[in-house]
Write a structure and sequence with these properties.
The chain is mainly alpha-helical. Helices cover about 70% and strands about 0% of the residues. A two-stranded antiparallel ribbon has the order 1-2.
Length: about 625
């Protein structure tokens, strides 16, 4: 009541002394709005403004609209929008307030619609209008609208404004027109460019996967000497280093962080973890992780993802357990990383537990998580569960189709994989990508479908305009080799448009071993040795080829050469999951706590097989 009485006195003074006291009234009203502490106070001010008629004042109504978005009803867009449409002839400030709110919200398209309405109402935009509307264009990737707004900035004379130009750079970059963004950036005078201008251009190159150019712009900024890079600049540069595997440069930027006085917060820390992980320095990534004082879920997820990318799946799952003990709840991104680790590690029970964890804790089962579940169940051999999740998707994307096709292929269900692809081909909104065809070719491999494999390989380029990469060529060599078409496989390798790698020659060598082609096996092994002179794989395989045809002299020669060159065979590794716990074993491994029982069981099986009436021979040897 006291608040209302103050407002009433203010209104009576205004009526008595006329509009000359407008500014003092505005200051008094704004002081009330800036200092209210309870939502009810705002409601009282707004109600009185409407009832007394002062809401018709554009200045008062615009400020009330601003405070409705900023404080009392910051999440209630319906309330604020209704309030906006109660303003008679809103000024450009009121329009900018609502543009600002919607451009940051979950409804950026409303910004575009309201901007068009403003123009129809005859209100001219100003230099504050365009950054908000361009932000909405950037979020929606509306290139044509961005071009239209670019023309409008010239028409209304606001193009030289640095905030407008920064917004244009961001909008063009986000819409896929990074060359136009660069043209806008180059037109901006060097003295006017601020750090946001540089960051927008670097971010634009990152979004378009042009990491070298992003680092080039970063170098230009450092060479210019002004403005000083902020933490956003350095984090973007770290991201580019990670993508390119530039460890030395990444370390220099890390040093720049330290010398520039930036604190190791979660934003910077997560970026450093990501960079070191992508550069293969997982130990350094863990050191950064351990030094972050107040870790959040983003830091934990970055470290878990780093372990998963480094094929350290056991460590990824163990870190997740630490995260739970620390009281952190996983989000969708964390779950996706964990599912990838479980799938690659073959930890089905762990993956099932994570699935139920999502359901118990109400974690949003978005499309990325469901795709991760499809991949995890497929890699762990439970294709029925993977298919159940896949068929439950309302609108599967290309990653969903690819995960399911590849999952069926790796589990030997080739016919189902090819049938699923034929179903996908009938859709108009989903097109296969390179990874989809990799799954298809694997399905043809496992099924022995040589003709279909050749058809899909040719369809990649002639129907879908996709360029095969080294993995596709390797699949084709493997397909031909499995079918004992070794001459065709060698001809295929010789006609490749790219240099064959070790994997391709190894596929041919495997095929030669399986089909006893000694001459071609020696040829393939020679090519592998040229590419990997210090690795043992080719020599061991070649030795096995000689052994398969009883050429023991050649076996001895290969083994002797390995000994002379001090090339050692890496021990084989296998693992098995029992009751949710994954057990890992190496050759002649005695480190497991149940080693004695395991070897006793194996010797019992060996004795049973040797005493079998069918006379099975095992060739099992045991080392103490």
């Amino acid at each position: 009541m006291l608040l209302l009485s103050f407002i009433s006195i203010s209104w009576r003074w205004r009526r008595r002394w006329g509009w000359g006291y407008r500014q003092s009234y505005h200051n008094f009203s704004l002081s009330l709005l800036e200092n209210f502490s309870h939502p009810g106070s705002f409601n009282q001010i707004l109600s009185h403004a409407i009832a007394s008629g002062i809401f018709r004042d554009p200045f008062i109504s615009s400020k009330l609209l601003y405070y409705s978005f900023s404080h009392h009803h910051q999440h209630d867009f319906a309330f604020s929008q209704t309030l906006f449409f109660q303003i008679c002839n809103p000024n450009v400030f009121a329009w900018n307030v609502i543009f600002r709110a919607y451009s940051r919200s979950s409804f950026p398209a409303e910004t575009i619609a309201l901007y068009n309405l403003m123009l129809r109402n005859g209100t001219p935009p100003d230099n504050y209008t365009f950054p908000f509307v361009l932000k909405a264009c950037a979020r929606l990737s509306l290139l044509q609208k961005a071009r239209e707004l670019h023309s409008s900035t010239l028409k209304w004379g606001v193009f030289p404004d640095v905030f407008v130009q920064n917004a244009l750079i961001s909008a063009y970059s986000s819409s896929g027109a990074v060359e136009v963004a660069r043209a806008v950036f180059d037109m901006l005078p060097t003295l006017i460019r601020d750090v946001v201008s540089w960051n927008s251009m670097i971010s634009g190159y990152l979004q378009s996967h042009r990491y070298e150019l992003a680092l080039k712009v970063f170098g230009e900024l450092l060479g210019a000497g002004s403005p000083t890079p902020d933490h956003v600049t350095l984090v973007s540069a770290l991201s580019a280093c990670g993508r390119l595997g530039l460890l030395d440069l990444g370390k220099k930027i890390h040093g720049l962080f330290m010398t520039s006085g930036f604190t190791l917060d979660v934003f910077v820390g997560s970026s450093l973890i990501d960079m070191y992980s992508k550069c293969g320095q997982i130990e350094d990534a863990r050191k950064v992780f351990d030094r972050i004082p107040d870790r959040n879920i983003v830091c934990w997820t970055s470290m878990i993802a780093g372990y998963a990318q480094s094929d350290l799946f056991k460590e990824a799952i163990e870190l997740f357990r630490e995260m739970q003990i620390g009281g952190f709840a996983a989000d969708a991104a964390t779950v996706a990383c964990l599912l990838s680790a479980c799938g690659h590690w073959g930890a089905l029970a762990q993956g099932r537990w994570i699935h139920s964890y999502c359901e118990r804790n109400g974690i949003e089962m978005d499309l990325n998580v469901r795709n991760g579940l499809i991949g995890m169940y497929s890699k762990c051999g439970d294709t029925q569960k993977a298919l159940e999740i896949f068929h439950g998707l309302t609108q599967p994307d290309i990653f969903s189709w690819t995960a399911m096709i590849s999952g069926l292929a790796m589990n030997g269900e080739s016919d189902k994989a090819l049938y699923l692809f034929s179903q996908m081909e009938m859709l108009t909104d989903v097109r296969p990508n390179e990874i989809t065809f990799l799954g298809l070719l694997c399905a043809c491999n496992h099924g022995g479908f040589v003709d279909k494999g050749l058809y899909y390989f040719n369809a990649m380029t002639h129907i879908y305009n996709l360029t095969p990469n080294i993995e596709h060529y390797g699949c084709m060599v493997d397909l031909l080799g499995r079918a004992n078409l070794l001459v065709e496989a060698e001809k295929f390798i010789r006609t490749l448009p790219i240099q064959p790698d070790v994997v391709i020659w190894r596929s041919l060598l495997f095929a030669c071993r399986n089909h006893g082609n000694i001459e071609m096996a020696e040829f393939a092994a020679k090519r592998i040795e040229e590419l990997e002179p210090r690795r043992c794989g080719a020599r061991v395989l070649l030795s096995n080829v000689y052994a398969s045809v009883l050429r023991w002299g050649d076996v001895k020669r290969v083994r002797k050469d390995m000994a002379i060159q001090r090339i050692k065979k890496q021990p084989g590794c296998s693992f098995i999951e029992i009751d949710g716990l994954v057990h890992e074993f190496f050759v002649a491994d005695c480190s497991h706590p149940e080693t004695d029982a395991i070897y006793e069981t194996l010797m019992g099986i060996n004795r049973a097989l040797q005493s079998s009436p069918k006379g099975f021979g095992t060739g099992i040897s045991f080392r103490s």
